[in-house]
Amino acid sequence: MSGLVMSIITNLGDFTHIIDPRHEDYMVSSPYFFWGFILTYIYSIKVLGPKLMQHRQPYNIKNIVIGYNIIQILVNLYIFFGAIYVYFSSSNWLCIDTTEKNFLANLRKYYYYLKMSDCLETVFFILRKKYQQASFLHIYHHSAIILGSFVGFRYYYGDNVTIVGGLNSIVHTFMYIYYLLTAIDSKWRNYMAIKRGLTLIQIVQLTMMWSWMAITKVIPGCKTFPPFALLIWITNNIFMISLFIRFYYKTYKDNQNTVTKND
After folding, report:
1. CA–CA separation, 150 and 165 (whole Å)
2. Whether the Cβ atoms of residue 236 and residue 144 lie closer than 8 Å to each other
């Protein structure tokens, strides 16, 4: 245990000394822009948005939401197939090291932009005055993924992080297909099995993510997260998994038990 602690302390410098030089423009490289975006997002959702909507009727933005979901589906599919291409261009299927470095660098940048655009979903909740959907889990999940995507391309931790983005993108493809269907026809909201399945898929996805990165850490010579970053990343993933499991039981199991008792 003491050896792990010393390794973490020793590797603290890795976070700032292995910056990827391919990302130097301000929007994608500055931690100030990142933190400014996150704080603005949280303030807008929890304070500014509800205040501006206080004396207004919910907006009818159905067509905007439909268009947004279609774009999200297409971009997530692009990221997913890009990650698949990177994976199969590597000679090692456990520890990825691809020759497509520039393509991979751009893919990470696009993924970061994509995670920031995900926040528009929460803005739509506020404009439609569906404040209950802007839950702690929802806001924390978006903020944590943006942080992970920023760290994943700004600091060079090897090519294995591509798997994380690929898994996340295919899961979000399924989610936005469902959101698109509910935006077109509200009857889709009544299919609890689909909603329950999407929540389970997210739990499985998060578990696969931290498991994959932990495996790459024990492979000799594999370029991956330094110990301190991996520990923080896995801890965050386990915390998110616990939030999703709590949400799952509260939303589906408790409701199921209530229906059974009423019957």
Report:
1. 11
2. yes
pLDDT tens-place string over residues 208-241: 888 888 888 888 888 777 777 778 788 888 899 9
Cβ neighbours, 10 Å, residue 57: 7
pTM recorded for the entire structure: 0.83
C-beta neighbour count of 252 within 10 angstroms: 16
Q: How far apart are CA 3 and CA 37, in angstroms?
A: 37
> What value does the CA radius of gyration of the chain take, rounded to a whole number of Å?
20
Half-sphere exposure of 118 (CA within 13 A, CB side): 29
Query: Residues 6 or more apart from 112 whose CB is under 8 A from it?
Result: 28, 146, 149, 150, 152, 153
Q: Distance between CA 248 and CA 49 in Å, rounded?
A: 27
Cα–Cα dist 127/52, whole Å? 9
